[in-house]
Amino acid sequence: MKQNKSSSVFSLAVVVAALGYFVDIYDLLLFGIIRRQSLESLGVPTESLTVVGENIISIQMLGLLVGGIIWGIMGDKKGRLSVLFGSIILYSIANFLTGFVGDVQQYAWARFFAGVGLAGELGAGITLVSELLPKSKRGIGTSMVAGIGLFGAVAAYFTFKITDDWRLCYKIGAGLGVLLLFLRISVAESGMFRHVQQKANIVRGNFFMFFQDAKRFRKYILAILIGLPTWFVIGVLVNLSNQFANKFYDGNKIESGRAIMYAYAAIAIGDILIGFISQYFKSRKKALYLFYFFAIISGIYFFNGNIKDDVTMYAACAALGFSTGFWAIFVTMGAEQFGTNLRATAATTIPNMVRGSLPLINLMFVNWFQKINGWDITKSAIYTGIIVMAITLIAAYFTEETFHKDLNYVEPEELMP
User: Fold this and answer.
1) Confidence (pTM)
2) Residues 187-197: pLDDT tens digits?
3) Which residues contact 191 (CB under 8 A, 6 or more apart)?
């Protein structure tokens, strides 16, 4: 079947998907930026800020996991656009209500439902762009989506700095979502999906199909594992940069929110570049290996004693961020490895499974290495990073190359022998 595809990586679908991810990242990182002020205003005592904050983040991540499955299934059953509309509506309502919460419990519930809403943005956008663009340009197109979108973290940081009002920041996020709804009205549905939708005998959006066939299950797990370093870097190294700074030098004034902003600005640049690098190599995996190399070098720099003041710490966070600027390629590879009837489910659940891996990484980092082994934060982070990177490199080696893959096919519903 011939597809009507725009040859431009700046088509309406790409721009709208990028803006959707911009709003997604704005909210996803906003809590980390305004956490202290928001929790203190709700009466949380200073000694409980870390525990309460981590609990709310975990609840938001749980929402992302639940939402990833819900929106992924809907994307394959009802269409990619249904997710782009439904997710942003739920996210906008949840964000607006977050601006009026009166206690920690209400805050946690609001972030849970916001997480559910946020979970659909990237996967549905990447799926739609992958199916609308010709395969020679889909890597660049999806990189533009992620690269532009990741600047949402920068917007969140400066919105808070300008307004100094955490409730208003959430309301602004809700307003951005409403504006995005109007932009999406003119976006066309994927021709590949419409073709499959007309086939009554094709099973669409069955999440359990990932576990019913050994080869498909293997591809799904590998697609998740190749993205693990992203949330180790952000969730551990950058998020706790002020604590690492305490170990590295005296008198640090590191703001975690600013460190996150620098890291995400660099991630955005990396995500834009990796599309062109992948195009140059004509390989997703070679581009991925290059950024893994950057991640290893940045990690060595982080821990080898070069960080002696706030400037070098922020620079190190930016370097780490740039090295994990493979989010776009990682999600694109997840979308490219599965047929049209499972593609949205894969592309939406895979990044949210990676996001959901952060509590497990923290379990190893905090409970296993620090509490059980009695190691300090630096040694624990080094060993956690080595294990995460080793798992990722092995997974990448066994992952399928998808650069030249034609996406116009479906997954058969066979059972595991």
Assistant:
1) 0.87
2) 877 778 888 87
3) 1, 3, 4, 5, 131, 132
